[in-house]
Every structure is written in structure tokens, then in C-alpha cells.
Amino acid sequence: MTQIRNSVKMNNRSVSIWSKSVRLTGEDTKQRLEEAAIRVFVQKSVAGASVRDIAREARVSLGAMYHHYKSKEDLASGLFVQNWGEMATELRVRAKLGNSLGDKIREMVRYVFESFDKNWELVTYVYLTRHEHLRRVRSDIPNPHVVVRMVIVDAIARGDIPRQDPDLAAAMVMGVIVQVIDVKILGRIKSKLTNCAETVAEACERILTR
Questions:
Q1: Do 61 and 160 sit in the same domain of this protein?
Q2: pTM of the predicted model, to two decimals?
């Protein structure tokens, strides 16, 4: 394949990567940018990263970057909303696999921790940047907090747990899960998070049945 410089052509045509060209579709390029952005944002934070950092990590030109996203902030927000919503959707599916409250919590905790073990950078990005993006997330986007709240509300209605403020209860359960992720990110938990799922789920259940 011939060597080219600084050229960007989409729709199955050549895209320059440094000095060597490869065949990429528009979707290929978009996926590379998103995966690269996650890595860069986790390493440098959204504020500390630049568009050039992301393009360099993805090995595409700045032109390719701006073809898909109008700004770094647009990319960061889009990544958060997409993955926040997908996480909530899957949490709802996992919760339905359990019959008792304990089973539902166990399924949800296991899913979050499995996701971290599979792609720690993506889960880290979602949880560490949620405060930057949550206020801009539309109400129709699935929300993990709302899913946990719904599970708690159902358990209260069935008489499985004492009556309590479901928002506060959901916040405490989510807090336990997020704090474990934080400690894992810091390297203080050495094992895979899935190995901790049972212990964390039991702690969350005790919070609700106190």
C-alpha cells in the first residue's frame, strides 16, 4: 500500500495514520476515536486532554476527529451519555434475573464488577466523570441510580425491607459500589472485582434491611 501524508478520506477510502495508510470506514474511525478518548480522558482527565492528544492516540488526523465530533467536550459528553444509558439498561435486565431482593442486588453488583474487569478504563471514565455530565443528561436516558431505586421501591412494596427513603437508600447502595471501584482504581484491591461481588452485594443488602 502506498505511503501518504496528512490525507483523510472517509467511506471505505484511505485514511492516513502517521505516514502509512490503512483502510478504515467512517464507523471504524469513530470507534477508534471513542476508544482512544476513553484512554486519554482516564489518563489526563477531560480538562487536561486535548483534541490533538485524542487524535494522536487514535492515530487519525484532526480532520477525522472533527468529522465525527465538533469538540472534545462533545465527544466526552457523548461517551458518558451512551455508556451511562447502556449500563442502566443492562442493570435493569440483570435485576429481572433475580427473584429476591438479595438476588437482584447480587446480579447488579456482579454486572458492574464484571464490566470493570472486562474494560476498567471505560467503567472508570463513566464513574469518575459522572458529576461533570449528569446535570446535562436528559430525563429519558436510562439511569443506573433510577434502576436501583426501582428495585428498592418494589422491595418496600412487597414488604421485603422496612419502609425508607428510596432515593437515600439507592444513593447508599450506589455509594458502596462506587467506593469499591475507587479503591480498585487506586490499586488497593489486588484481586478482580468479580471476586468481591458477593461480599459487596451482602453489604448493600444489609444497608436496606437494617
A1: no
A2: 0.82
